[in-house]
Amino acid sequence: MKKILLAALFIVLGSIITFYFWASSSFNEAEGYDQIVTFHPDKKRTPDTLSVLTYNIGYLSGMTNNLPVDRKESLFSDNLSESITLLKSYDFDFIGLQEVDFGSSRSFNYNQFDSLGIQLDFHQGAYAVNWDKSYVPFPYLPIKKHFGKIYSGQGILSKMQIKSNYLMILDKPMSAPFYYNAFYLDRILQINKVQYDNDTLILMNVHLEAFDKETRELQAEKVLEEFKKWSKDYPVILMGDLNSRPPFASDLINNEKTIEIFLNNPLIEEAISQERYLENESQYFTFDTAEPYERLDYIFYNNNKIKKIDSDVLREAKDISDHLPVWMTFTLKK
Questions:
Q1: Which fold has domain 32-332?
Q2: What is the mean predicted confidence (pLDDT) over 222-239?
């Protein structure tokens, strides 16, 4: 009897170990994580006034993001169609996306990035893969609601030529156990050089840690270091979901310093200033879209090279995602 129980235990342990290594392994080549693709070769342009949008699209799952619920394919196709209709009407020059799927089981294997790039008539797009797993066992229960295969990340869409695409992997949560981090997405900073007439514009796209404040603040410090490297010589846009409220928010949690880390630099300004934000705080909340209660999404720029013209939260996006996007128009200082 003991031998049978021991054999059964070894089988169970062997199955768990086999599943762990298989599920946490990637199924794509890392060389494809930072590729640049051309959607429309003849769509390049160089307008006098530029526009940029940052949008965590939550893999087009609306307010069902990360919930163990049934989702029909129509949810994703409808949200894709709605996002294309909305964004076409604004015709942004650049869009930085977070939580965009390139072919994941959870979103019926749509390549959302390519679909948006093609349908919105962008010249090029740059991939930034940060989650490539054979099987993600989340949400935990019930098992049939697991994400399964994940191929997802960030991306930049551009109406102009993208000269280079570089990915910097940021620290994972320090307090999380190894088996959690084995399935967890990489937090990355995506950096693009974009050709604008005779100038070069630097676009940075980031999605910071959501659940561990200390890790998030360390990530912000590293992103700031990279921003400072480029901002002396180039106009720089830093955009993304920073998973943090501004330091002047009326209900700041745990003395969060993430946004303050950027705003303490005299060269850096934000699309929606403190004065404007405090005039009508709820007007600039970006999360969640059912009942917005906080701001998590930002566009920063270096004021020595860029002049802001206008900006706002794109509230018309409604519940396509659980986040609302932020946009800004600007010109380059000569």
A1: Deoxyribonuclease I; Chain A (3.60.10)
A2: 97
